[in-house]
């Protein structure tokens, strides 16, 4: 399957095929599974600008509906992380007279609530109603829309130029990224910055984290591809920082050309990417082969444990769980339920495989022999919380970077 690049119109060749997949955050009710939406999850790289992207695009209105269930403040670690970012902005960027910050995909206000608390002018752009309302209850101002060039113009007309435009786990979700970049270029103050952090292609590939691929991730960014995209739309990549969230993310800072010094880290990461052949089609194809092996190993292990009469339940219902369970054919016969602390996911089922989602109490009420950790990126926080499970002899199954038991 070949396609046109959403950034530069180059050719995108499919390299990783994870089969038919549902929308990762659909979480249908048990009675609502008869007409589920499926698409072919194929990811490829642009021959020209090297941007890694989904070949098939799912309309954004279908993905970010009113009841979008993911809450960005759902983990203590994430709350600390985003509050820290808000503090850094308040100290380093929002220091002029009457500064203004806009966030694209502000979710439940995990970052902007701190900005609102400080009394600084801000605007969250968030089309999913329930999470937007949550953030409003935390004092955050929200424009309940999708962000693109025309939204940016309206924001600019109403609020003036922005000192900071921010996005986290949202910018790589927007298939009309070209329009977003044009809009940001329009909205930014002369020395303003566009800061966004998203799962990093280098980390995804290094760990064979194939479950980071799903309908929402229209792109998986690399330093090289972001640098090229920035240049194309009149911006410059001036800073990159690797952050540990989601198994390895990259925080990119874009500015108007010449306005900010370019950090040596930009060149260093470009060098690392070149040395690791990250921009090569063969690297993605190899990633796809390793994903297949992990999928087979995991299905094999779960089959063995079942044959031996062991009980396995899932821990966490992240979006990733849809990819891995659908790819490996893991259903409620193998994993009877998963537990998750997000109320909006409980009582629902994982899309496609229909594994029920229950509250964490269902886990601690009757510990299984093994817990399959779908939220592997929160391993430390979850294992600390569930220490009793391990103390009583329970074992954790992880499948990134390979299938192993701890
Ligand atoms: P978590 C998210 O994906 C959301 P997901 C989004 N799709 C995106 O782009 C990527 O990040 C990058 C639960 N949990 O953070 C809460 C517990 O039950 O890995 C969550 O449902 N107990 C926008 O969905 C899930 O696990 C706990 O103690 O893959 C984790 O989801 C903790 C800490 C979490 O993101
Ligand atoms: Zn391209």
Automatic annotation (TrEMBL):
Q: Where is the Methyltransferase putative zinc binding domain?
A: 5-62
The alphabetized list of GO BP terms reads: methylation
Keywords for this protein: Methyltransferase, Transferase
List the Gene Ontology MF annotations in alphabetical order. Answer: methyltransferase activity
- Domain C-methyltransferase, which positions? 244-401
Name any one Pfam family assigned in the record.
Methyltransf_14
Top-rank lineage group of the source organism: Bacteria
Xref: InterPro entries: Methyltransf_Zn-bd_dom_put, Methyltransf_Zn-bd_dom_put_sf, MeTrfase_14, SAM-dependent_MTases_sf
PANTHER family attached here?
BLL5978 PROTEIN, TRANS-ACONITATE 2-METHYLTRANSFERASE-RELATED
Name of the molecule in the record: Methyltransferase domain-containing protein
